[in-house]
Automatic annotation (TrEMBL):
InterPro entries to which the protein is assigned, alphabetical: Plipid/glycerol_acylTrfase
Entry's transmembrane regions: 12-32
GO molecular function: 1-acylglycerol-3-phosphate O-acyltransferase activity
First-tier enzyme category under EC: transferase
Pathway: Lipid metabolism
Sorted UniProt keywords: Acyltransferase, Membrane, Transferase, Transmembrane, Transmembrane helix
Protein name as catalogued: 1-acyl-sn-glycerol-3-phosphate acyltransferase
Amino acid sequence: MIIVIRSVLFNLAFYISLIIQMILFLPLTLILPRKKAWIVPKFWARSNLFLQKYIVGTDFVVEGAENLPEGAYICAPKHQSFWDVYAFLSYTPDPVYILKRDLMRIPLFGWYLKKMKMIPVDRGTGIKALHSISGGTQEAIADGRQIMIYPEGTRRAPGAPPAYKYGVVHLYANLGLPVVPIAHNAGLYWPRRKFLRYPGTIRCRILPPIEAGLDKEVFLQRLIEATETACDEFLVHASQDNNAPPMPPTAKARLAELQAQRNEAETKA
């Protein structure tokens, strides 16, 4: 019951804060130069983290911030929750998100996206969408920005089999930039399509950059292996916490697979 009450309070606070900040800070955002205007969305991100910590009891830790390069690179976070949309804003000086064009049409929110020069894409347009992404990233690269793309395209439940899209491979091959994978387990504490929020500690790891110039298949395999190995580690760790969050079916299935792999390795040893 306490989790339900905390979830209600957090969701109310989250959306009320979002609306108030969008209205209150819009004039400042429109007046400031784009790079200085980042003070507004980054303040919003920090306020969300504050609300989640003190209302729900969900904290977070980030390892590997030293792995972030300077200047332009491709940032490829795992996408499990709305949490990972804003949580890494403090770690990237001038990110540009590749996002659905429909988001640009939302009153107020879309105005912020246009001000920050995000890259809109029409889903389902295939090759045309890939070319529009490449075109939109050229200006961002020249300005030393960080290209934010979720390799799986949409939110995936913790433990679900990886479903990486070709978009990140296309960007990697055409932009000639290193890719920084980011693994985390936020979906256990802020589940996709769920109302409840759970207390605990979200664990994140900024992994070493994958250098530019690799074969496409080699790159994709390295991206998947690095990200999913760290996510598996976080999943196991969370399942062993004294205050473990509820495990979705995908997480339970993956934990069983990992246990079977460990048992097999021990048998062979």
